[in-house]
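ERR on first pass: missing label on line 2. Operator R.T. fixed the label and resubmitted. Corrected input:
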Amino acid sequence: MQPPSEHVHWLFATGVLLLGLCLLAEAVVGTEVWRRRAWRAYLWPGLAFTLGVFMWPVMTFYTNSTIHMLAHGAWAEVLMIAGAVELALVRGKLHSPAWRLTMAAAFLVSGSAFLVHEQNVWFFQRSSLLHHLLGWTLVAAAVFPLARSVRPRSQAAAAGFALTFVVLAVFLYCDRDVAPVFGHLSPLAGPPHR
Amino acid sequence: MNAELVSELEVPRQRTARARFVSALGPLTVLAGVIWAIVQPYRLTILHPVGQGFWWLFVEPPLLVIAVGLFFYFAIVPGLLEDLEEHDATAV
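pass 2 clean. output:
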């Protein structure tokens, strides 16, 4: 009953895409309007926290190697911490915008985990390319949550932060276990499937 | 024409650029899912379900994209537009 790993990527892509759309809408209408209804204020931080919770079964069941287990565990932790901090900021339990640095840390840890746990070269197969892309995108995009913590009202930072999640969702949807990328597929990767 | 009735007619409101953008997010997401399904029909296992396992039938990426767009459009956008209009009206 365990889903193939590519299906897990697609399910997470769905959550990340919804997260991206919510953040994009918030960036456009402004935080004041977005938070007019309590359920909406908690929506995307709650979604981030939930995605972190769902990373734990991934850590438990997809133990291809120790590095995979450590990477998935690190994601689970940083996603849950970042989501919890955003929830506390919305609730008013935390006040300083500097707490948003946890999201920047989550981006850096997640990006590093992607890069470290992908041990094949970029063009080994499609999932290799996408893991490298996801990793570097997250590392580079850490500048947006960093900017949000320094300048909380910056629309550019909010829009960049939101679009990062949309881009991540696209990459995750493109992920396949064994499939060629730009015509390249290592013979060591195994036979490609649909 | 009765002027009293005319005054009760609803005047179509001009939506702001922000409202139009937010309204478009859901449909654009659905459109992306539909285009993806047309371009890569083999990603839709429901079109050839014989011999497929549960996960291949349950997780179909283009349909998931369409579902996200529909959920966003019907569950999140209406309330958000109401609040945005209220905010803009009080800000004027």
